[in-house]
Each structure stands twice: as C-alpha cells, then as structure tokens.
Write a structure and sequence with these properties.
- This protein is α+β, with helices and mostly antiparallel strands and about 180 residues long.
- The protein is built from 6 helices and 6 strands, in the order ααβαββαβαββα.
- Strands 1-2-3-4 form a 4-stranded mixed sheet. A two-stranded antiparallel sheet has the order 5-6.
- A hairpin with an 8-residue loop joins strand 5 (about 155) and strand 6.
Length: about 180
C-alpha cells in the first residue's frame, strides 16, 4: 500500500516536471515579428495638422518618455519606462515646446492613467496639450500662442504689385559673439 502511494507521488512529480518543461519551452519560443504603422489612422491627420499649423517647429511622433525625461534610480525610471508620447513639438533649437497627446477612443476609461502620464510630463518640466480629436489649425495656433495675422496689402508705387505685411517683418538672431561663443 505504501509502495502504491510512493509510486503515485513519484508519477505526479514526473508529470509536474514535464509540464513545467513544456511551459518553459513555449515561453522561450520566439514569435514572429510583424511590422506595423508608426502612426494609427487617428494619429496621422493630427500629425499633418500639427505640421501645417506649426511650420517653424519640428514635430516628432511616437517619442519614448525616456527620450525627454530621466531620473536617478530604477524605481523612479520605471514610472515612465515603456511609455510613449504621441507627439513632441520642438522649436528650431530642439527645445521641447509641448508634448501633444491625442485622446481618441482608445483612451476611454483610462483617464486615471492619462492623468498619471500628464503628471510625469509636467514634473519633468514640459507642457502637455491633449486633444480629444484631430484639432483644426486655428485651435493648434491658439494653443501654441501663435497669432494669426490677416494678410493685408501695403500700397506701393506700382498698383499692380502688392506687398504682404509678413514681408515687412525683420527677424534678428543673436550672433555668435553676442552669445559668447
């Protein structure tokens, strides 16, 4: 009788060991890698609108949080590890102007997660702008503080030629000497 119990225990152990070996093999098996779009069908029009509304800016898409924030220690870095921003808007000197998130239908029910993401971005010193849908150009310009100047003509000697107000602006940049280079 004892031999039967011992035999059953040994048999059970063998089955458990073989079962775990099969699970380990399945877990270590490599699955096929498939390509995917960088931007979803909802994100594509937003990218194009940002680019059109902000021609003097650099628009980056699908940027890892670790590209624009850092911290000491793994525990803190794990707060933003594997998180990706939809868009990051840079000025011509590659300074971050804002992080832009598109809250399409995939964000429903994830408001708490979005608020946590926002707090991380703000803690890192960056501005966050969220859109529920693809914004229009005027909304983007308003959110980025870009005033829209109506094109008006300036009278010239030749009535057939007109000059736009935008052509009258002079942009000054600092020289290397002024910057102390």
């Amino acid at each position: 009788m004892i031999w039967i119990i011992i035999l059953i225990i040994v048999f059970t152990i063998i089955i458990l060991v073989l079962g775990n070996t099969n699970k380990a093999k399945k877990a270590s098996m490599r699955s096929p890698i498939k390509g995917k779009r960088v931007l979803t069908m909802n994100e594509q029009p937003t990218f194009l609108r940002l680019r059109e509304a902000l021609p003097e800016h650099i628009i980056l898409a699908q940027v890892a949080f670790s590209a624009f924030m850092t911290a000491q220690g793994y525990a803190t870095r794990n707060l933003f590890n594997r998180k990706v921003a939809d868009f990051v808007v840079l000025d011509k000197q590659f300074n971050i102007v804002a992080v832009v998130e598109l809250d399409d239908s995939s964000h429903r029910g994830k408001e708490d997660k979005d608020a946590h993401r926002d707090s991380l971005i703000v803690e890192a010193g960056h501005r966050i702008i969220r859109y529920a849908r693809t914004p229009d150009i005027e909304q983007i310009k308003q959110d980025f503080g870009i005033s829209v100047v109506e094109a008006t003509t300036i009278e010239t000697e030749n009535p057939e030629k007109t000059a736009f107000v935008a052509e009258a602006f002079v942009f000054e940049t600092e020289t290397k000497q002024q910057k102390g280079w």
